[in-house]
Amino acid sequence: MDIANELYLQQSRRSFLAQGALGIGGIALNSLLLGDEAERTAVGGLGDLPHFKPRAKRVIYLFQSGGPAQMDLFDYKPRLAGKFGKEVPKSVYPDARKTTMTSGQKSFPVAPSILKFARHGQSGAWLSEALKHMPKVVDDVCLIKSMYTEAINHDPAATLFQTGSVIPGRPSMGAWMSYGLGSENANLPSFVALTSNGRAKMGQPLYDRLWGAGFLPGRFQGVKFRGQGNPILDLYNPAGVSRAQRRRMLNALGQLNREQEERFNDPVISTRIAQYELAFRMQMSVPELIDVKSEPKRILDLYGPDATKVGRYAYNCLLARRLAERGVRFIQLYHRGWDAHGNAPKQVKTQCQDTDQATTALLLDLKQRGMLEDTLVVWGGEFGRTIYCQGKLTKQNYGRDHHPNCFTYWLAGGGVRGGMSYGETDDYSVNVADKPVHVHDLQATILHQMGINHELLTYRHQGRDYRLTDVHGEVVKELLS
Length: 481
Known about the structure:
Blueprint: H1 3-11, H2 13-34, H3 38-42, E1 58-65, E2 117-120, E3 125-128, E4 141-148, H4 154-163, H5 173-181, E5 191-197, E6 223-225, H6 243-264, H7 267-289, H8 297-303, H9 313-325, E7 330-336, H10 344-368, E8 375-380, E9 384-385, E10 402-403, E11 407-412, E12 420-422, E13 424-425, E14 432-434, E15 437-438, H11 439-449, E16 459-461, E17 464-466
Parallel strand pairs: 1-7, 1-8, 4-12, 4-15, 5-6, 5-7
Antiparallel strand pairs: 2-3, 4-11, 8-11, 9-10, 13-14, 16-17
């Protein structure tokens, strides 16, 4: 499917008659056979997807922007305490893998985590003391300690995780899902993006292209819910304009757009018509959706004191659950503030104060509603942090630079094996020692749980068939239950 092919089909009378004769009958037959299940087909998606029975119906991706320090959270290295202040051997960490922010340092001393670790759950997983709530759900989580990437700077690294390429302009993972599987709710987008800032009041820019459609038709891009004021601009009609008036205006505008579409045969115009109609339906569905204060007190208490504060991480986690139960297929939550170049111990604790309770609450909430088994929750950032200190090292303080060679992600629900730790790093938490998992492997696994063969979900653009995982990537089957 591409724009040139769409134009050809629109201009071909024979194709129109053939598709019309078969399509109307097919829709009617599909409705009779599938009943309520026909709604998803009516809202879009490719006819040959899913490729096989999915284990998950939806994805909630909790992207921790900035790069959480794996050795301060999940990757416990007790032996490093005896190496405090000693130089990290160049055989372990060569100069070629250091950023310009630290490559000029004269010394690269080992900075062991000062945070205490303990085992939790039946799995005996090691967790940092900064994660005070996660022990409640650790047996539902699959820790991947052997993630790695090629990108060492924030924007290309985040772009790789979100779009499968360090080069901007490719479709995001949510856009691929929306394109392939369509929507389960005609009154809400199939792909929603949410952003929040940590109390650290710092963070990397989050560009709209991270949830964009790239070269896919624009209707598949993520709809961003704003973190202040109305979640979507112009959601409510202005004073003096009734819903009936708005409907008449859209009817007239739709007629003008259809005339333009017939004249120019431009698929972008049909996308615009569809988006206007979705926006009209969202005027009815979104106000109820964002009314989180209607939740029972026990649920609000579960997510914590920020649960009703628009734009905070806890609010977005609760909103993610409400979006998921209403049929939104891909929910992308970005939380900034993990870029701890200095004062890392304090910043890690502050970030966990913002995120740990709400993340745990999301898993507990999904589980008690019977939704965790078919909701895949993903947690992680664009890379990890260095074991050597950036800046001055003291017993109570250190900084950490970017580190792409190894870091931790975790998955929960959606057919993933809970209570397991996959992969290992070396003694310095510098390189993967066992079972490496590349960014494309993670993406292939996520698509697989949604019933998609990552090698078959493609789109022809500029003479080439593109896919999310580029030209490689393997499903990590050991993670799956």
